[in-house]
Design goal:
434 residues, 6-stranded parallel β-sheet
């Protein structure tokens, strides 16, 4: 099938490359000429394992192309996916839908023949109705349908998630549109990926509800971790004990410095605002968002406590800046608030991350960046592990101890055994463990 993907950011590029790999003909459109030029030259603007190879293969095979002008791509497409950003709107926290609506207007002007317009961007309930109204207003003669098809991609594992999804959600009550969507996803039938057809508003809400629930699991285990520290229990034991219950499940029960990234913070906030607008407030999610905001700075205070209550004039080495491993995404990363808390307390920061340092330079001030983990730890008074990159999981503790000014480790991801680190002579603190 012929597909136009409007937006060549994280969701659009991964989705477009995967659709092309299924055998469809895909054109990814983006208004940023520099991004399109980079993609045409084989340079991928984001870090996602396997994506560069996937894009290169499908460009070479002629199934994937890039453009800045959407008119030709839309005109020849049977399905047009809207995969533009929906950031939190300044001032009130609602999702900013201006990019979605602008895309709808431009699609309406360019479409030719029956076209399925698919909202891939994460959007609040009712956005599809407005997209349909805009297209109808712009092109009263157009033959089209608007479908919601939310993405459920994890950064760092997006290609596997796309090709082996837990489910595919299709929000439409138009039989022709559903048939087109089924054909687009037909290659996944071999994997027996369940396709869930529902009304458009239910599909829009499913995405927000899923992210809010996962954010709630993270926040729940973080609060249990706080209690564990007070009563002398190990949060990892508790997490295993409840995670083996099939009704609960083990995923997202890892205590740490709170959630971040491009999805959970903005999506929980957008859901809160939508629920308030419809006079059906979601108090649990409101609390989750508030607790998570406080959590990040609390982790900074945990590092300070590990240093004896003061970091003024001391150097703190921070390992890991991105909100999770296997991505270069710094959006809402816990490291940002942790570092600012330490700086507010007078600490000097030296940091290392294998993928996130360039983005961090535009978000943080007065931070020294290191070549590797050991360079980062040299002469530091404390080492804080903030992101659990694999390369941090088996550090040479003897080498660290010899190079550090003081042997203090604040392991905010619980990747080491406390007794082993303490046996090497370190002051060691972690999350939810004593």
């Amino acid at each position: 099938m012929r597909i136009a993907m409007i937006g060549a950011g994280y969701v659009g590029l991964v989705s477009g490359a995967c659709f092309a790999d299924f055998g469809h003909s895909v054109c990814c459109v983006d208004k940023d000429p520099a991004k399109i030029e980079a993609l045409e030259q084989g340079r991928i603007p984001i870090f996602e394992p396997g994506l560069a190879e996937l894009v290169a293969t499908n460009v070479r095979e002629g199934r994937l192309s890039f453009a800045t002008d959407l008119s030709q791509a839309v005109q020849s497409a049977e399905a047009v996916f809207i995969a533009v950003g929906t950031p939190s709107r300044r001032g009130d926290g609602h999702a900013d839908l201006s990019y979605v609506y602008q895309a709808a207007r431009e699609i309406a002007a360019a479409m030719d023949g029956y076209t399925v317009v698919v909202t891939k961007s994460t959007v609040p309930v009712g956005t599809g109705d407005e997209v349909e109204r805009i297209i109808r207003e712009t092109r009263p003669d157009a033959d089209f349908a608007v479908v919601s098809n939310p993405e459920f991609l994890r950064e760092g594992a997006a290609i596997a998630d796309f090709k082996r999804p837990d489910r595919i959600v299709i929000g439409t009550e138009d039989e022709r549109a559903e048939a087109v969507m089924n054909e687009i996803y037909r290659p996944l039938y071999l994997n027996q990926a369940p396709i869930l057809a529902m009304c458009r508003r239910a599909a829009e809400l499913t995405k927000y509800a899923a992210n809010a629930f996962l954010a709630t699991k993270i926040t729940f285990i973080n609060e249990i971790a706080n209690l564990c520290e007070q009563v002398g229990a190990d949060v990892q034991d508790v997490a295993r004990g409840i995670g083996l219950d099939n009704r609960i499940g083990s995923k997202f029960l890892h205590a740490g410095p709170g959630y971040g990234g491009s999805c959970f913070p903005k999506d929980t906030l957008a859901l809160i605002k939508t629920a308030q607008d419809f006079e059906a407030p979601i108090r649990i999610v409101e609390t989750v968002a508030a607790v998570n905001d406080q959590r990040k700075r609390a982790m900074g205070r945990k590092v300070i406590a590990a240093c004896g209550g003061s970091v003024r004039g001391k150097t703190v080495a921070v390992l890991g800046l991105t909100f999770k491993p296997n991505t270069d995404d710094m959006r809402e990363a816990p490291s940002l608030d942790i570092i600012r808390t330490l700086q507010d307390a007078g600490a000097k920061i030296r940091a290392y991350d294998p993928e996130g340092m360039e983005a961090a330079k535009g978000m943080l001030q007065d931070v020294e960046y290191a070549r590797d983990a050991y360079d980062c730890a040299k002469d530091a008074h404390a080492l804080a592990i903030v992101t659990e990159w694999n390369m941090f999981r088996a550090l040479d503790l003897e080498r660290l101890k010899k190079s550090m000014a003081e042997p203090v480790i604040a392991d905010l991801r619980n990747i080491y055994r406390a007794e082993e680190v303490r046996r090497r002579g370190f002051t060691y603190v972690s999350v939810g463990r004593v």
